[in-house]
Design a protein that fits this description.
By secondary structure, the protein is mostly helical. It has 2 domains: 104 residues, no CATH class; 39 residues, no CATH class. Helices cover 60% and strands 4% of the residues. It has 9 helices and 2 strands. A two-stranded parallel sheet has the order 1-2. Helix 1 packs across helix 2.
């Protein structure tokens, strides 16, 4: 499975922070971002964000003293994204896209939920489909696990 690189401006599409921007989750719950990075196989962070997490502990991030650093990181990431877009050749992108193991259009929210379920339960709650058939959803799982 290929990794998805998340930038601060990205909106998470899984877990208890689904629908929230990564920058907001990082400011409110940096431990969750660290957990995603270290646990979820397909979850990756921009190089600059990885460096930021290495340089600062959760207490410092939560203190709010890093708002200037986060703003600079946000701007630098946007510049990086834009420069990558400007320097890319569409034919190269199409070729690399075709080489992916899956088509993103076919990768639905339930697939992400199943990957997330498997990553955080490590089989302790059984099969994902059976879990869902019993009427549980990902919010129930997060509550059971104390997230």
């Amino acid at each position: 499975m290929s990794k998805t690189v998340f930038f601060l401006s990205d909106v998470l599409n899984f877990g208890k922070h689904s629908g929230e921007r990564l920058v907001d989750v990082l400011q409110e719950n940096p431990a969750y971002v660290r957990w995603c990075f270290s646990t979820i196989e397909w979850f990756s962070l921009s190089t600059k964000l990885e460096e930021f997490l290495r340089d600062y502990d959760d207490e410092t991030i939560l203190s709010g003293r890093l708002s200037k650093e986060l703003d600079e990181l946000f701007i630098n990431e946007q510049d990086e994204i834009l420069s990558d877009d400007d320097n890319s050749d569409d034919s190269d992108w199409e070729e690399s896209y075709d080489q992916h193991d899956f088509d993103r259009d076919d990768y639905e929210e339930n697939d992400a939920d199943e990957d997330y379920f498997n990553a955080i339960t490590d089989g302790q709650y059984g099969d994902y489909n059976r879990y869902r058939e019993n009427g549980f959803d990902m919010d129930d799982l997060a509550d059971m696990l104390g997230f």
